[in-house]
Design brief:
- GO terms for molecular function: DNA binding.
- InterPro entries: DNA_brk_join_enz, Integrase-like_cat_sf, Integrase_catalytic.
- This is Putative transposase.
- This protein has five helices and four strands; from the N terminus they run αααααββββ.
- It is mainly α.
- Strand 1 and strand 2 form a beta hairpin.
Length: about 130
């Protein structure tokens, strides 16, 4: 196996699956780690993963809504008031959905001047619940 073989495998996965570069890089890391370990312990004489390079990022650009986009978003009817409030809170604070979903009554307090404070201490996901 050579670094070129790893390059070909990487490009084949990218082309055939349409996965993002980050995911393809993770797949190839799963291939390269055992190769590196086999070289380290002397099971193979060369390490083709040494010269291997992952793909550059190809994430979709993310941006902040413009004022016009935000006005249009809030002018539309919402399925529930909770959804509208979650989006408004995210826009105002930068909180992520998991952080918003994890808010409990214990996370809303008053500071020493009796001003409200929202504590972001945990997150929630469908996979691991509260974390």
């Amino acid at each position: 196996m050579t670094a070129q073989d790893l390059d070909r495998l990487q490009l084949q996965i990218k082309k055939e699956t349409k996965l993002k570069a980050k995911t393809v890089n993770s797949i190839l890391a799963a291939v390269c780690i055992p190769i590196r370990e086999a070289f380290r312990v002397g099971r193979v004489s060369h390490n083709p993963a040494q010269k291997f390079r992952g793909l550059g990022r190809d994430d979709d650009p993310r941006g902040i809504l413009s004022s016009a986009e935000l006005k249009k978003l809030f002018a539309e009817p919402w399925e529930t008031e909770a959804h509208r409030l979650a989006v408004a809170l995210s826009h105002a604070t930068g909180m992520r959905l998991g952080e918003i979903l994890a808010i409990g009554l214990e996370d809303i307090t008053l500071d020493f001047e009796e001003k409200p404070v929202l504590w972001v201490r945990k997150s929630w996901s469908t996979v691991s619940g509260h974390k």
